[in-house]
Design goal:
Length: about 190
């Protein structure tokens, strides 16, 4: 039986994934391997990333959040590439943090200002909730792709992440408006 690319999501939904999964490995994995090997990775990295991408795709198909306007092979390839880019960014940040020298002991005055700054941020973020802080950290500080945030925070879809991100930003703005002294203190940091 020859399987057409546009039949893949429906076959997965029907439980005929035994026919589909090997086809996806055959068609997409070699392309992912090529890309990852050209961009600081190896075959094992490519295999791991591809499996993660396949899992994301599979969940989207099962939950009916996969948009049929996309070509399956290209979509799976794109997810793989995005996962690899995010992994590289994350690894680089981790390496940079690990390479930092031990901090010199600070004077009492500097400790006071560091504590004061931490308290300002803590005051600001305490009103928006831990989930919002986590979401805004992923999206703004780490600049993760929405697809990656969907996985990390168990959102049902990218649009759900975007809506929640807007709500969290609005909560943050409300906190700033409620307490203008916090804004002044933030400017001092």
């Amino acid at each position: 039986m020859i399987i057409k690319e546009e039949q893949i999501p429906e076959l997965i939904r029907l439980g005929d994934d035994r026919k589909v999964i090997p086809l996806l490995y055959k068609k997409v994995l070699p392309q992912v391997e090529k890309y990852i090997k050209r961009n600081s990775g190896n075959n094992e990295d490519a295999f791991d990333v591809f499996q993660d991408a396949l899992l994301i795709f599979y969940k989207q198909v099962i939950k009916n959040t996969f948009d049929a306007k996309y070509k399956v092979f290209g979509y799976l390839y794109r997810i793989s590439i995005n996962l690899w880019i995010n992994k590289i960014k994350k690894d680089r940040k981790i390496q940079l943090v690990e390479e930092l020298p031990e901090p010199e002991p600070m004077e009492v005055k500097e400790n006071f200002f560091a504590l004061k700054n931490e308290n300002v941020l803590e005051s600001l973020f305490s009103g928006i909730g831990d989930k919002c802080v986590e979401l805004l950290t992923y999206s703004i500080y780490y600049n993760l792709l929405m697809e990656d945030i969907v996985i990390r925070m168990n959102f049902p879809s990218v649009s759900a992440v975007k809506m929640q991100q807007q709500r969290c930003k609005q909560k943050l703005m409300n906190e700033i408006e409620k307490n203008p002294l916090l804004l002044d203190k933030l400017r001092e940091i």
